[in-house]
């Protein structure tokens, strides 16, 4: 496999109706990657808002294609010819200037992926994700992860100058929660992954959000956490990035997030709390254990 000499890092971003976040996401990447050689491509799932326009305005290449998340990840991975590949959601915000070096240090001959442990939404731990990578942030050694993909033929008219069926390596992003079969796939090939630490935002002395609906799956404790379901992630005691969770749900026209019954006003509230703090350079970082 040949890699382009003009960049060492490829960043693929999946997006859908995320105009509130996409510009911040790309700007944060550019701010924290100063001096690095990289390329950014956004695969937009036919957003009905200005997400693709904003992505282009912030200097990213945009592919507009309606597809499931597994296919989107494979299309982006297919585009990468860099030494390292980062696949993220559009509501992921990189926070530390040294994150790229930190992640590179974890990749070894047998370790080909660095990703958060998929356990949490804020302080609400999802035990079914323990020991599994999280799809919002996956940092790969490109050559070995592509080698693990299976050859298939796909119609790539939208992505190649010459349309038609082409051999296309597909990695297994098609299991439950997109990523939960990855450890098994890696283990079968004597490979592994390194899990990043997951940190909820700070618990405040008083609740900033309250909700009363006996039919909703609402825990009053959630209202005390500064950025709600948003999480921070760390390596070697350094917080690398933030993921907001559920941003795209704000445009679905409902008042609650089904089937959990979480009010969208809560998601809107903690999303805006983080964005306001980030834009004013006062993000309230949690303590790193």
Structure description:
The chain has 289 residues and is an alpha/beta fold. It has one domain (9-279): Spore Coat Polysaccharide Biosynthesis Protein SpsA, Chain A, CATH 3.90.550. The chain contains 7 helices and 16 strands. The strands form 4 sheets. It has a 10-stranded mixed sheet, sandwiched between helices. A two-stranded antiparallel ribbon has the order 7-8. Strands 10-11 form a two-stranded antiparallel sheet. It is globular. Residues 1-5 and 160-166 have low confidence and may be disordered.
- By CATH, the architecture is named Alpha-Beta Complex
Count the E strands: 16
Q: Which whole number gives the mean pLDDT?
A: 89
What structural category do the secondary elements indicate? alpha/beta
How would you sum up the global shape?
globular
Estimated helix fraction: 10-25%
Distance between the termini: 40 Å
How many domains? The number is: 1
Which fold name fills CATH's third level, the topology? Answer: Spore Coat Polysaccharide Biosynthesis Protein SpsA, Chain A
Which strands sit side by side, in order, in the main sheet?
Answer: 3-2-1-4-9-6-12-13-14-5
> What's the story with the biggest beta sheet?
10 strands, mixed
């Amino acid at each position: 496999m040949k890699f382009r000499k003009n960049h060492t890092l490829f960043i693929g971003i999946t997006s859908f109706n995320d105009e509130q976040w996409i510009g911040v996401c790309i700007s944060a990447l550019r701010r924290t990657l100063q001096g690095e050689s990289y390329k950014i491509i956004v695969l937009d799932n036919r957003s009905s808002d200005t997400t693709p326009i904003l992505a282009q305005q912030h200097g990213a290449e945009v592919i507009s294609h309606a597809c499931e998340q597994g296919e989107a990840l494979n299309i982006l991975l297919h585009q990468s010819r860099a030494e390292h590949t980062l696949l993220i959601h559009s509501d992921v915000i990189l926070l530390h200037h040294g994150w790229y070096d930190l992640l590179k240090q974890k990749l070894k001959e047998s370790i080909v992926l660095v990703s958060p442990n998929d356990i949490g939404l804020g302080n609400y731990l999802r035990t079914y994700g323990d020991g599994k990578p999280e799809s919002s942030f996956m940092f790969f050694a490109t050559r070995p992860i592509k080698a693990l993909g299976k050859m298939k033929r796909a119609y790539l008219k939208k992505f190649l100058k010459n349309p038609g069926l082409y051999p296309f390596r597909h990695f297994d992003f098609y299991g439950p929660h997109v990523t939960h079969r990855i450890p098994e796939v890696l283990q079968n090939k004597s490979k592994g992954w390194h899990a990043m630490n997951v940190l909820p935002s700070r618990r405040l002395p008083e609740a900033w959000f309250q909700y009363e609906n006996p039919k909703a799956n609402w825990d009053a404790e959630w209202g005390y956490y500064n950025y709600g379901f948003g999480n921070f992630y760390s390596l070697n005691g350094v917080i690398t990035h933030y993921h907001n969770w559920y941003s795209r749900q704000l445009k679905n026209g409902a008042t609650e997030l089904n089937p959990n019954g979480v009010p969208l006003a809560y998601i809107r509230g903690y999303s805006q709390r983080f964005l306001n703090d980030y834009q004013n350079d006062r993000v309230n970082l949690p303590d790193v254990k």
